[in-house]
Design goal:
The chain is mainly beta. 8% of the residues lie in helices and 59% in strands. The chain contains 3 helices and 18 strands. It has an 18-stranded antiparallel sheet that branches. The protein is elongated and about 100 Å long.
Length: 334
């Protein structure tokens, strides 16, 4: 048979620079013919990712990579191919492509905001695409360590993300309004506002074949100077606690502490805005200042209320944005 082996070769172009070598073993039997390629990548433009992809890569995966990777710089990377020249099944040839990305932009799904300022390592192998990111931005949210997976299996094409992040409260509300969640969080209209910080963990699974959002799980630690609940026109100050969201439309929290009507309050919330859901129920108990409560109710007859008194109440925000309110407590006294 014929044996071919290259010396080290160099490639330079608008896509970037690279060096590599290859070898081929070509016996008479076609099924025994082998190829080996190792190609190192330097100073490449991530917008040309498609140029580095093998021609026989799975068309669906190749198409997603070509569409999704919008920009970025590749300081270093490598393409490795080893196996049969004439591939019969996937196992006949090993394929690997990895690169270190910075200042990247990734449009992982057209319906979701484009992620930017991405930094981390991307790996393409026989089982799909994996990325381990250390930093990024997503529609105003600062993203920390995040794993991105695009597996190749029987469950269908999808992007899976697991990570952590931090943002200010106002950016979180803007992101939730922009996210393609249907009517689940439609109650977060322009009247809502939040000032302060939010640390969060998230898990997201987005199908790439037109199916609806498969999974969105968010656990957020709130540390807010102020949270304005639009429908009730009320401000919670110094709000702190843990809030969870599970798609579709379910919000829960066992304990959020805040200040309301000039006194401390402890809140629990739960409910769902999914179709047929019961809406969001907030239950609170605390102490309130009479004048602050009178100002909120806007009744002249209560204008002379003074002092603090214990109270408890329930507020339900329905899917159409309407509010049901029930507050109980003795009259405040000096």
């Amino acid at each position: 048979g014929l044996h071919l082996r290259s010396d080290l070769f160099r490639v330079r172009g608008p896509q970037g620079r690279g060096t590599g070598h290859f070898a081929m073993v070509l016996p008479r039997e076609p099924e025994l013919r082998r190829i080996s390629l190792a190609f190192g990548i330097e100073s490449a433009d991530a917008a040309f990712t498609e140029a580095f992809l093998p021609g026989k890569l799975d068309p669906e995966l190749r198409g997603w990579l070509a569409r999704a990777v919008r920009a970025g710089r590749v300081d270093r990377g490598a393409l490795l191919i080893n196996g049969a020249v004439k591939q019969q099944v996937r196992q006949d040839r090993a394929l690997g492509l990895w690169f270190d990305l910075r200042a990247g932009r990734l449009a992982f799904d057209p319906a979701w905001p484009t992620a930017s300022s991405l930094e981390g390592r991307v790996l393409l192998a026989g089982d799909g695409v994996r990325a381990d990111l250390v930093a990024g931005r997503l529609a105003g949210l600062d993203i920390g360590r995040t794993r991105v997976r695009l597996p190749r299996d029987a469950a269908g094409p999808r992007v899976e993300l697991e990570g952590v992040g931090r943002a200010d409260g106002r950016s979180v509300i803007r992101f939730l309004r922009a996210a393609p969640l249907g009517d689940d969080l439609a109650f977060l209209d322009e009247r809502w506002d939040a000032v302060g910080s939010v640390d969060f963990d998230f898990g997201l699974t987005v199908p790439l074949d037109g199916r609806e959002l498969e999974r969105l799980e968010v656990d957020a630690d709130l540390l807010l100077d102020r949270l304005h609940v639009g429908q009730a026109d009320v401000d919670f100050e110094n709000a702190a606690g843990r809030l969870s969201y599970r798609h579709p439309g379910r919000l829960t929290s066992e304990s959020v502490r805040a200040e309301l009507f000039g006194g401390p309050v402890e809140l629990r919330l739960g409910g769902s805005f999914a179709e047929g859901g019961e809406g969001l129920l907030l239950e609170g108990a605390g102490r309130a200042e009479g004048r602050a409560l009178a100002d909120w109710i806007d009744l002249d007859v209560l204008a002379r209320l003074a002092g603090r008194a214990p109270w408890n109440g329930r507020m339900r925000i329905l899917g159409d944005g309407s509010v049901e309110l029930d507050v109980n407590g003795p009259a405040p006294t000096e």
